[in-house]
Amino acid sequence: MINSVRVIERLNVGVLETAVMTTRWSRRGFLAASSGTALALGVHTTADATPLTSTDITETSEAADEFATLRAKWRTLILGEGFSPTAEPFTSRLTELGTTADQLRSTMAPTSGSLWPDLVYADPEPDTDQESYGYSGNLNTSYTRLGTLAQAYSQQGTGLTGDTGLRDTILTGLDHLYSEVYNENLARYGNWYSWQIGAPQALLDVCVLMYDQLSAMQIADYLAAVDHFVPDSAVSSYSGTSTGANRVDLCRVLALRGAVGASAAKIVLARDALTPVFPYVSSGDGLYTDGSFIQHTTVPYTGSYGSVMLGGLGMLFALLAGSTWAVTDSNRQIVFDAVENAWAPFLYNGLVMDGVSGRAISRGLSASDAKQIQQDDHLRGHPILASIVLLGQGASSAENARWRGLVKGWMQRDYYSPPMSNPSLGLTSLARLKGVQDDTTASAIAEPTGHRLFTQMSRATHRRPGWAASISMSDRRITYYETGNGENLHGWHTGSGMLYWWGDTFCNGQYSDAFWPTVDPYRLPGITASRKVLADAAGGDWGASLPDVNWVGGATDGQRAAIGQYLKGLQSTLLAKKSWFCLDDSIVCLGAGITCTDGTTVESTVENRNLGPTGTTTFTVDGTAKPTTYPWSETLTGTEWAHIGGHGGYVFPGGATVTALRAARDGKWSDINKGGATTVLNRKYLTMYVDHGTDPTNATYAYLLMPGATVAQTQTRAAATSWLTILANTDSQQGVSVPSLGFTGVNFWFGGTVGDLTASSPCCVMITEKSDDTAVVCVSDPMRMQTSLTLTWNKAVSSVISKPSTVTSATTGSSLQLTFGNLSTTAGVTQKITVKLG
Predict the structure, then answer these.
(1) Which listed residue (6, 252, 296, 662) is catalytic?
(2) For the residues of 475-515, what is the DSSP string, one character each?
(3) pLDDT digits (tens, 9 = 90+) for 725-762
(4) Model confidence, pTM
(5) Active-site residue 348, yes or no?
(6) Residue pLDDT, tens place only, 528-585
(7) Which residues are within 8 A (CB) of 160 and not within 5 positions of it... i.e. 6 or more apart?
(8) Taking burial as the number of CB atoms within 10 A of a residue's CB, which of 196, 240, 405, 803 is the most buried?
(9) Which of 10, 71, 105, 359 is catalytic?
(10) Is 296 a catalytic residue?
(11) Among 121, 182, 305, 689, which one carries the catalytic annotation?
């Protein structure tokens, strides 16, 4: 039934438009109707919507033109610009879009409970259980498919551009979903996201693309539905599901609702509701000063939700730029700064590191759509590159130029998965990246070297010439892993010290090529874990399970680092102390205090390399080539070094007993994601691990990882027994020194003395002695609990050149004694002291 507002809207068109009324109104006709007497009545369109009054819309042609301008800008933002439909890859992509749309059109069959037979949205028992999530997801996908049809109708070169039959199909679909399920009289079920973000975003995109083909009544209906499911109150509080990336998504809905419905009030609301997204946070969701990005309270999410937030802000900034409602909040500079502070550290040769992608790592080929391209770290990284390009349009000219250089470099180096060949990248993103690729004024910027420690999300990245690595940990603030929506069912140990690494021109597909469904989830590289069998989604949804530990973090001078993790196993009695000392050509990995009473074996995985479908890579141990057959395993005793051809080397100081194996492993995406494909995949792995036995007590391990090292380099490092000194590897302290680098690093799990260092309380210490007789002493409080700390370095120091305010006293002479005040409020951030030796 047409309500009073819609009746008056239609009457207003007769008054304000000189053209003859038709069931399909022109763009200007609806604008005129929207600014008339109906709105002056102040009638609610929904129970929870803000009353609309004549002040919501300025009754001038200029205002009408401004809303039209917003819709035109959004149309360009979602369709793309600056590309030729007769040039590749655009020609093929447009043809594919037309083919897909034609198939969707032919299979659409409106009936009670569904729009497509394979997408039933009618929930017989509507609630919020997993089954209902599926039904609400089908609603979301139904609107997404209509969006695909609208794209094919609106894009040039699809073969369906302006096709009247396709137009009628789209309008039929929109009306069917409105009358059946997405309207102002029904309640939501299943996943809130489908109703407040997924469906309305797709619906409003279609409204923009099909605007001239929709009647005022249709638009009023669809907007009433949006107002019902996404009321103003959705952004009234910065909490719950209205933070970070979700808040940006909600603001997108409100802004587009305002543009389609010519409501200045909605656009103002959307713009202003972005304000709490910008400032740095000290807890919960958002951006932190150290570059961390958290979503869902406990999950490092730079690569997934962070990508959505970056892309969403870029689009909203671009949409509103130059309008009455431009985003002018000075804190938006924080977002610009985050491009290099938060996102760039996790981008490498076009990929975004899996350690900050949460449950997205489990998203591969979908069970419901065989044509869906498998997601992976590269395919997730490319949209971030495109978002950076778009965001640069609103940044300073210097930032924009530098970012285009970064993006160009990432694109050029992504040999494994070139962005312009990314089958899941939209035409808009492709066009932006093609613009950078062809920009002769943009010079590719090389990958930086250095270390970044993200204490607020228990992550670290270490970049050296020729390779990069990342470490994922967990503590009482950061979850072991995230599962939810039936996703990432076996991610249990991804926060147990997983050590990822990639080469500059090699091994970039290590975690891309069906790694997650085929890898042994109890033997992820770098972790220590009990073989206790865990159930799917063990620990609970949405990052609910947190280890009861404080000492996780480290210290860095920006080039090297000492990092530690006090590990408690998920649903396990496992305890361990793990340390990583990140150096110039290697990472020294130590484990100690490994204790467990699960009644199962405990292992520390030195490496688990994905060798692809064939797996013929050589494996050399102490100069002897091992078999390349599958399966194969051997317990290697007294092992001093090992080398995996085309990957890198591993050194075991003093010799170690290591189990090595080759295994061809089967797996399905559906094993780790309930929506995943059931196709069986097979990948071959070369694994090395230290078997600590059943119920170990104070077990240890020690090894060096040398990414990209040759056989000769690995053998030479193993023979140089004085290159590395392990100062301690116990449950109380772990530390190393490398005299040739002037490096000393110690993780004091408890106070005590290690080598020349004595600490009164738990802390992390890293020292680099330089050739100019200066030294940099880096100290941190990973526990965030020390109100005082005394550190003594038994080394002659003549003076202190610089120190932070946390150092309350510094005594020099035959030794250096530093007294720190309250470190509990420093968030585990490194305190740097520079001294003169002698």
Answers:
(1) 296
(2) -SSS-S---BTTB-TT-TTTTSSEEEEEESSS-TTTTTSSH
(3) 999 999 999 999 999 999 999 999 999 999 999 999 99
(4) 0.90
(5) no
(6) 999 999 999 999 999 999 999 999 999 999 999 999 999 999 999 999 999 999 999 9
(7) 98, 101, 102, 152, 153, 166
(8) 196
(9) 359
(10) yes
(11) 305
